[in-house]
């Protein structure tokens, strides 16, 4: 005996399934946070501002040195690098290695970090640009001059010799006194590395500026000093009478 009732119910179910369409809804997950999410560094038409100190860093220095990278690590450390270039470059928001060819023409590296910051050992130096590999980052000293001498001690341990010392002021702010030193390291018979390291306070941060170049003669050294001071002036730092 054929059960027509069951056949009718089955036919109805198949007909419903055949006539139904299902719409898949795509759920887009929010992007994973990265350590380079920016909170303090803001971009403007011709430069960058660290909102903690209000310090403006131009995208180009002396019309020839351009910033190809401006980044912020862990919403704490701001970094900017300048290299010699023929025009504006794409800006990376993560640190990039500085090539030897760039150092031949001179480079400028800037890092700003809270005065309470001390580098942890949980991340490689490359996360923080070129300065940590040269001289560490963050010494938790009570004031700018003590932070400056902490860097001097570390750079001296790396084989650099102190050559000259200068005192500077950022803008017209009497509480933003910076100290700058020229240090040299012999790399070979006819090649030395020159660094001008400038350290000082800005609001609740310390700012470190490292100007770097390979030198081969006394004339190179003289021109490096003059060029470096022009760079510091463009960064709104002026020398104070001793």
Secondary structure layout plus pairing:
Elements: H1 4-19, E1 41-44, E2 47-50, E3 55-58, E4 60-61, E5 65-73, E6 77-84, H2 100-105, E7 107-114, H3 131-135, H4 144-157, E8 161-170, E9 177-188, E10 191-202, E11 205-215, H5 218-234, E12 237-239
Antiparallel strand pairs: 1-2, 2-3, 4-5, 5-6, 6-7, 7-11, 8-9, 8-12, 9-10, 10-11
General description of the model:
The chain has five helices and twelve strands. The chain has helices at residues 4-19, 100-105, 131-135, 144-157, 218-234, and strands at residues 41-44, 47-50, 55-58, 60-61, 65-73, 77-84, 107-114, 161-170, 177-188, 191-202, 205-215, 237-239. The chain has a nine-stranded antiparallel sheet with strand order 4-5-6-7-11-10-9-8-12. The protein has a three-stranded antiparallel sheet with strand order 1-2-3, with no helix packed on it. The radius of gyration is 28 Å and the shape is globular.
Short description:
The radius of gyration is 28 Å and the shape is globular.
- Mean of pLDDT: 87
Oligomer: single chain
Beta-strand percentage range: 35-45%
Q: What structural class results from the helix and strand content?
A: alpha+beta
The stretches of 5 or more residues where confidence is low (pLDDT under 50) are: 1-18
Q: Report strand order across the widest sheet.
A: 4-5-6-7-11-10-9-8-12
Task: Give the SSE string.
Answer: HEEEEEEHEHHEEEEHE
| Cα radius of gyration in angstroms | 28 Å
């Amino acid at each position: 005996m054929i059960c027509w009732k069951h056949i009718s119910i089955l036919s109805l179910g198949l007909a419903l399934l055949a006539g139904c369409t299902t719409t898949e809804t795509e759920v887009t997950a929010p992007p994973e946070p990265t350590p380079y999410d920016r909170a303090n560094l803001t971009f403007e038409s011709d430069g960058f501002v660290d909102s903690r100190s209000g310090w403006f860093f131009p995208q180009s220095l002396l019309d020839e040195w351009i910033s190809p990278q401006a980044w912020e690590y862990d919403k704490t450390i701001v970094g900017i690098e300048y290299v010699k270039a023929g025009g504006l470059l794409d800006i990376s928001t993560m640190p990039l290695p500085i090539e030897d060819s760039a150092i031949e023409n001179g480079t400028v590296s800037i890092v700003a970090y809270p005065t309470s910051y001390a580098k942890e050992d949980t991340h490689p130096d490359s996360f923080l640009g070129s300065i940590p590999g040269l001289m560490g980052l963050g010494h938790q000293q009570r004031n700018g001059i003590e932070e400056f001498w902490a860097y001097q001690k570390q750079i001296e341990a790396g084989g650099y010799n102190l050559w000259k010392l200068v005192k500077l002021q950022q803008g017209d702010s009497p509480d933003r006194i910076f100290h700058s030193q020229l240090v040299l390291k012999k790399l070979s018979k006819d090649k030395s590395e020159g660094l001008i390291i400038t350290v000082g306070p800005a609001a609740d941060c310390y700012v470190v500026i490292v100007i770097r170049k390979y030198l081969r003669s006394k004339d190179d050294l003289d021109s490096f000093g003059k060029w470096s001071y022009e760079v510091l002036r463009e960064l709104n730092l002026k020398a104070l009478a001793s």
